[in-house]
Amino acid sequence: MEVTGKIKMIDQTKEVGSAGFKKRDVVVTTDEQYPQSILVQFVQDKCDLLNNFQVGEAVKIDINLRGREWINPQGETVYFNTIQGWRIAKAQAEAPSSQAPPMPAAAAFPPATSLNEDEPDDLPF
Q: Within a 10 A sphere around the Cβ of 22, how many other Cβ atoms?
């Protein structure tokens, strides 16, 4: 799966817990009719992938969806989802592949002439 859009925010790398787990968040705003601000989390050695990017850049992020279950102190089961990034690249402007190339202006073409002036025009209109 992937998320594309412009970087809205890049957070600093944070260490969580006593085991040295590292995470770094980036928020990407999608370019669609109803833009969404999507939080993507990079973990461990993938945190460094964000070093070469800045706020405002258009990017494509390859993601995995992660989910986990937790039982809170009241005994209720709670579920969490995380969008985890594993690759990020600058978005490339895609050329429309299904459209024909633009036509030049009519003035670029010489007026049509008949190849044989002796031949009568036999078209019915």
A: 15
